[in-house]
Amino acid sequence: MQVTPVTADITNLQIGSSQIAPSTTLVVNMLRTIYDPVGTRLVAKSQQTVSWEFGDWLLTNQYASLVSGVWPAPSNARTFSAAEFTALQTILSENTVVALKCTWATKPSPASRIGPLYIEDIGVGGSYWYSNGSTLELTHPTVLYKSGARDGSVTSGTAETLLKNFLIQGGLLGLNRGLRIFAQFSYTNSTNIKTFRTRGNAGVTGLAGIEYRNSQRSVAGTVADNLFDTLSNRASASSQFYGSAYSAAAQAAGVQPSSAFDTSVDWYFSMTGQTATGGEAIHLESYIIELV
Length: 292
Known about the structure:
By secondary structure, this protein is mostly beta strands. Helices cover 6% and strands 37% of the residues.
Protein backbone atom coordinates (compact mmCIF):
# COMPACT_ATOMS: atom_id res chain seq x y z
CA MET A 1 0.00 0.00 0.00
CA GLN A 2 1.37 3.43 -0.97
CA VAL A 3 2.09 5.68 2.00
CA THR A 4 3.49 9.19 2.14
CA PRO A 5 5.39 10.78 5.05
CA VAL A 6 3.56 13.84 6.40
CA THR A 7 5.03 16.22 9.00
CA ALA A 8 2.44 17.81 11.30
CA ASP A 9 2.91 20.61 13.86
CA ILE A 10 1.58 19.57 17.26
CA THR A 11 0.07 22.58 19.08
CA ASN A 12 -2.23 21.12 21.73
CA LEU A 13 -0.75 17.76 22.85
CA GLN A 14 0.29 17.40 26.48
CA ILE A 15 2.61 15.12 28.43
CA GLY A 16 1.25 15.11 31.97
CA SER A 17 0.58 18.81 32.73
CA SER A 18 3.28 20.09 30.34
CA GLN A 19 2.23 21.61 27.04
CA ILE A 20 4.16 20.45 23.99
CA ALA A 21 5.76 23.40 22.26
CA PRO A 22 4.13 24.39 18.95
CA SER A 23 7.40 23.79 17.13
CA THR A 24 7.41 20.10 18.12
CA THR A 25 6.95 17.91 15.07
CA LEU A 26 6.23 14.26 14.47
CA VAL A 27 6.82 12.46 11.18
CA VAL A 28 3.64 10.51 10.38
CA ASN A 29 3.30 7.86 7.69
CA MET A 30 -0.28 8.23 6.49
CA LEU A 31 -2.25 7.55 3.34
CA ARG A 32 -1.94 10.14 0.60
CA THR A 33 -5.55 11.12 0.98
CA ILE A 34 -6.36 12.48 4.44
CA TYR A 35 -9.87 12.58 5.89
CA ASP A 36 -11.43 14.62 8.64
CA PRO A 37 -13.11 12.77 11.59
CA VAL A 38 -16.41 12.28 9.75
CA GLY A 39 -14.78 10.84 6.64
CA THR A 40 -14.94 13.86 4.32
CA ARG A 41 -11.91 14.09 2.03
CA LEU A 42 -10.01 17.35 2.49
CA VAL A 43 -9.16 19.11 -0.76
CA ALA A 44 -6.80 21.51 1.03
CA LYS A 45 -5.09 21.03 4.38
CA SER A 46 -5.06 24.03 6.71
CA GLN A 47 -2.84 23.04 9.62
CA GLN A 48 -3.91 25.74 12.05
CA THR A 49 -4.75 23.19 14.73
CA VAL A 50 -3.71 19.56 14.88
CA SER A 51 -4.80 17.33 17.74
CA TRP A 52 -4.04 13.64 18.24
CA GLU A 53 -6.45 11.45 20.12
CA PHE A 54 -7.33 7.80 20.72
CA GLY A 55 -10.91 6.97 19.85
CA ASP A 56 -12.96 5.88 16.88
CA TRP A 57 -9.88 6.32 14.73
CA LEU A 58 -6.57 4.76 15.66
CA LEU A 59 -5.28 8.30 15.23
CA THR A 60 -7.35 11.32 14.26
CA ASN A 61 -5.74 14.26 12.49
CA GLN A 62 -7.98 17.31 12.94
CA TYR A 63 -7.54 20.34 10.76
CA ALA A 64 -9.11 23.77 11.15
CA SER A 65 -12.39 23.99 9.32
CA LEU A 66 -11.97 25.62 5.92
CA VAL A 67 -15.40 27.15 6.38
CA SER A 68 -15.66 28.29 10.01
CA GLY A 69 -11.96 28.26 10.87
CA VAL A 70 -12.39 26.04 13.94
CA TRP A 71 -13.22 22.39 14.53
CA PRO A 72 -15.43 21.52 17.52
CA ALA A 73 -13.45 20.17 20.46
CA PRO A 74 -12.99 16.40 20.11
CA SER A 75 -15.42 14.52 22.33
CA ASN A 76 -12.74 12.13 23.54
CA ALA A 77 -9.81 14.56 23.87
CA ARG A 78 -7.47 13.54 26.69
CA THR A 79 -4.08 14.08 28.25
CA PHE A 80 -1.29 11.61 27.45
CA SER A 81 1.08 10.23 30.04
CA ALA A 82 4.80 10.20 29.24
CA ALA A 83 4.64 6.43 28.64
CA GLU A 84 1.66 6.77 26.31
CA PHE A 85 3.38 9.54 24.38
CA THR A 86 6.47 7.35 23.93
CA ALA A 87 4.23 4.55 22.65
CA LEU A 88 2.52 7.03 20.33
CA GLN A 89 5.86 8.10 18.89
CA THR A 90 6.75 4.44 18.27
CA ILE A 91 3.47 3.87 16.42
CA LEU A 92 3.92 6.98 14.31
CA SER A 93 7.45 6.00 13.36
CA GLU A 94 6.03 3.03 11.47
CA ASN A 95 3.81 2.82 8.41
CA THR A 96 0.45 3.66 9.92
CA VAL A 97 -2.82 3.04 8.09
CA VAL A 98 -5.71 5.04 9.53
CA ALA A 99 -9.00 3.12 9.40
CA LEU A 100 -12.42 4.50 10.30
CA LYS A 101 -13.97 2.39 13.08
CA CYS A 102 -17.71 1.75 12.68
CA THR A 103 -20.41 -0.91 12.77
CA TRP A 104 -22.16 -2.49 9.80
CA ALA A 105 -25.19 -0.31 10.51
CA THR A 106 -23.22 2.94 10.89
CA LYS A 107 -20.67 2.50 8.07
CA PRO A 108 -20.54 5.42 5.62
CA SER A 109 -21.66 4.95 2.05
CA PRO A 110 -18.82 4.23 -0.41
CA ALA A 111 -19.49 7.51 -2.19
CA SER A 112 -19.03 9.52 1.01
CA ARG A 113 -15.81 7.91 2.16
CA ILE A 114 -12.82 6.60 0.21
CA GLY A 115 -10.35 4.57 2.25
CA PRO A 116 -10.07 1.75 4.81
CA LEU A 117 -12.74 0.87 7.39
CA TYR A 118 -12.63 -1.36 10.45
CA ILE A 119 -16.12 -2.81 11.02
CA GLU A 120 -16.16 -4.05 14.60
CA ASP A 121 -19.37 -6.14 14.60
CA ILE A 122 -18.68 -8.21 11.47
CA GLY A 123 -16.40 -11.15 12.14
CA VAL A 124 -15.14 -12.88 15.26
CA GLY A 125 -12.43 -10.21 15.66
CA GLY A 126 -13.95 -7.50 13.49
CA SER A 127 -13.11 -7.09 9.80
CA TYR A 128 -11.26 -4.71 7.48
CA TRP A 129 -12.84 -3.25 4.35
CA TYR A 130 -11.89 -0.71 1.69
CA SER A 131 -14.15 1.82 0.02
CA ASN A 132 -13.05 2.86 -3.47
CA GLY A 133 -15.78 5.48 -3.83
CA SER A 134 -18.27 3.24 -5.60
CA THR A 135 -18.16 -0.12 -3.78
CA LEU A 136 -17.15 -1.50 -0.41
CA GLU A 137 -14.71 -4.42 -0.68
CA LEU A 138 -13.63 -6.94 1.95
CA THR A 139 -9.83 -6.84 2.20
CA HIS A 140 -9.37 -10.45 3.39
CA PRO A 141 -11.50 -13.51 4.29
CA THR A 142 -13.22 -13.07 7.65
CA VAL A 143 -14.54 -15.70 10.06
CA LEU A 144 -18.15 -14.81 10.91
CA TYR A 145 -18.90 -17.74 13.23
CA LYS A 146 -16.83 -20.57 14.68
CA SER A 147 -17.01 -23.20 17.38
CA GLY A 148 -14.80 -26.14 18.28
CA ALA A 149 -17.31 -27.50 20.77
CA ARG A 150 -20.50 -29.48 20.23
CA ASP A 151 -23.20 -26.92 19.41
CA GLY A 152 -26.42 -28.65 18.35
CA SER A 153 -27.85 -32.17 18.54
CA VAL A 154 -30.72 -34.41 17.46
CA THR A 155 -31.28 -37.08 20.12
CA SER A 156 -34.92 -38.11 19.74
CA GLY A 157 -37.78 -38.21 17.25
CA THR A 158 -37.60 -38.52 13.48
CA ALA A 159 -38.44 -34.97 12.33
CA GLU A 160 -35.93 -32.58 10.76
CA THR A 161 -34.42 -30.62 13.66
CA LEU A 162 -32.39 -27.40 13.73
CA LEU A 163 -28.77 -27.90 14.74
CA LYS A 164 -27.55 -24.30 14.26
CA ASN A 165 -28.90 -21.11 12.69
CA PHE A 166 -26.56 -18.31 11.52
CA LEU A 167 -27.70 -14.72 10.98
CA ILE A 168 -26.13 -13.16 7.86
CA GLN A 169 -26.51 -9.38 7.81
CA GLY A 170 -28.12 -7.79 4.78
CA GLY A 171 -25.58 -6.66 2.20
CA LEU A 172 -22.66 -8.76 3.50
CA LEU A 173 -22.55 -10.86 0.34
CA GLY A 174 -22.68 -7.81 -1.92
CA LEU A 175 -22.96 -8.77 -5.57
CA ASN A 176 -20.12 -11.30 -5.77
CA ARG A 177 -19.04 -12.27 -2.27
CA GLY A 178 -19.84 -15.59 -0.65
CA LEU A 179 -19.57 -17.94 2.31
CA ARG A 180 -17.25 -20.86 2.95
CA ILE A 181 -18.89 -23.40 5.25
CA PHE A 182 -16.95 -26.01 7.22
CA ALA A 183 -18.63 -28.40 9.67
CA GLN A 184 -18.06 -31.75 11.36
CA PHE A 185 -20.87 -34.07 12.44
CA SER A 186 -20.94 -37.22 14.53
CA TYR A 187 -23.79 -39.72 14.60
CA THR A 188 -24.98 -43.10 15.80
CA ASN A 189 -23.14 -46.09 14.34
CA SER A 190 -25.90 -47.97 12.50
CA THR A 191 -27.25 -48.81 9.07
CA ASN A 192 -30.27 -46.55 9.65
CA ILE A 193 -30.42 -43.34 7.61
CA LYS A 194 -29.05 -40.13 9.16
CA THR A 195 -29.59 -36.95 7.10
CA PHE A 196 -27.66 -33.63 7.22
CA ARG A 197 -29.09 -30.57 5.51
CA THR A 198 -28.08 -26.96 4.93
CA ARG A 199 -30.63 -24.26 4.12
CA GLY A 200 -30.52 -20.72 2.78
CA ASN A 201 -33.03 -18.02 3.72
CA ALA A 202 -34.01 -20.44 6.48
CA GLY A 203 -35.92 -17.99 8.69
CA VAL A 204 -35.67 -17.75 12.46
CA THR A 205 -36.72 -21.42 12.80
CA GLY A 206 -33.90 -22.58 10.53
CA LEU A 207 -36.27 -25.02 8.81
CA ALA A 208 -37.65 -22.86 5.99
CA GLY A 209 -36.18 -21.57 2.74
CA ILE A 210 -34.04 -23.39 0.20
CA GLU A 211 -32.58 -26.83 0.87
CA TYR A 212 -29.02 -26.83 -0.48
CA ARG A 213 -27.35 -29.93 0.89
CA ASN A 214 -29.11 -33.22 1.60
CA SER A 215 -26.53 -35.82 2.66
CA GLN A 216 -27.51 -39.23 4.01
CA ARG A 217 -25.32 -41.67 5.92
CA SER A 218 -26.31 -45.28 6.61
CA VAL A 219 -23.07 -47.26 6.66
CA ALA A 220 -22.26 -49.39 9.71
CA GLY A 221 -18.87 -48.66 11.23
CA THR A 222 -18.93 -44.92 10.46
CA VAL A 223 -19.55 -42.35 13.19
CA ALA A 224 -18.50 -38.95 11.74
CA ASP A 225 -18.48 -36.87 8.56
CA ASN A 226 -17.26 -33.48 7.33
CA LEU A 227 -18.97 -30.76 5.30
CA PHE A 228 -17.15 -28.25 3.10
CA ASP A 229 -19.49 -26.14 0.98
CA THR A 230 -19.61 -22.69 -0.63
CA LEU A 231 -22.44 -20.25 -1.23
CA SER A 232 -21.88 -17.25 -3.51
CA ASN A 233 -23.84 -14.41 -4.98
CA ARG A 234 -23.35 -14.26 -8.74
CA ALA A 235 -23.38 -10.66 -10.02
CA SER A 236 -26.57 -9.99 -8.06
CA ALA A 237 -27.72 -9.73 -4.45
CA SER A 238 -30.65 -11.98 -5.42
CA SER A 239 -28.96 -14.84 -7.28
CA GLN A 240 -26.95 -17.55 -5.47
CA PHE A 241 -24.89 -20.58 -6.42
CA TYR A 242 -24.19 -23.34 -3.89
CA GLY A 243 -21.18 -25.64 -4.16
CA SER A 244 -22.62 -28.94 -2.94
CA ALA A 245 -24.66 -31.89 -4.16
CA TYR A 246 -28.31 -31.02 -3.59
CA SER A 247 -29.43 -34.63 -3.44
CA ALA A 248 -28.58 -37.98 -5.00
CA ALA A 249 -31.16 -37.38 -7.75
CA ALA A 250 -29.93 -33.86 -8.46
CA GLN A 251 -26.32 -35.00 -8.51
CA ALA A 252 -27.14 -37.76 -11.00
CA ALA A 253 -28.97 -35.25 -13.20
CA GLY A 254 -26.05 -32.82 -13.07
CA VAL A 255 -28.07 -30.11 -11.30
CA GLN A 256 -26.14 -27.64 -9.15
CA PRO A 257 -28.03 -26.07 -6.23
CA SER A 258 -29.04 -22.44 -6.72
CA SER A 259 -31.44 -19.94 -5.23
CA ALA A 260 -32.83 -16.47 -5.82
CA PHE A 261 -33.58 -14.70 -2.54
CA ASP A 262 -32.64 -11.17 -1.52
CA THR A 263 -29.36 -11.07 0.46
CA SER A 264 -29.48 -7.27 0.77
CA VAL A 265 -31.69 -7.80 3.84
CA ASP A 266 -30.91 -9.94 6.92
CA TRP A 267 -31.30 -13.70 6.36
CA TYR A 268 -30.38 -17.02 7.98
CA PHE A 269 -28.19 -19.92 6.92
CA SER A 270 -28.92 -23.12 8.85
CA MET A 271 -27.72 -26.68 9.44
CA THR A 272 -30.25 -29.36 10.38
CA GLY A 273 -30.27 -33.06 11.21
CA GLN A 274 -32.81 -35.85 10.88
CA THR A 275 -32.76 -39.51 11.90
CA ALA A 276 -34.96 -42.22 10.39
CA THR A 277 -35.05 -44.12 13.65
CA GLY A 278 -36.07 -42.63 16.99
CA GLY A 279 -33.44 -42.76 19.71
CA GLU A 280 -30.49 -42.32 17.35
CA ALA A 281 -28.44 -39.12 17.38
CA ILE A 282 -26.70 -36.53 15.19
CA HIS A 283 -24.34 -33.96 16.72
CA LEU A 284 -22.83 -30.79 15.23
CA GLU A 285 -19.29 -31.07 16.63
CA SER A 286 -17.66 -27.99 15.11
CA TYR A 287 -18.11 -25.34 12.39
CA ILE A 288 -16.57 -22.31 10.72
CA ILE A 289 -18.59 -19.87 8.62
CA GLU A 290 -16.27 -17.59 6.62
CA LEU A 291 -17.04 -14.52 4.51
CA VAL A 292 -14.97 -14.37 1.31
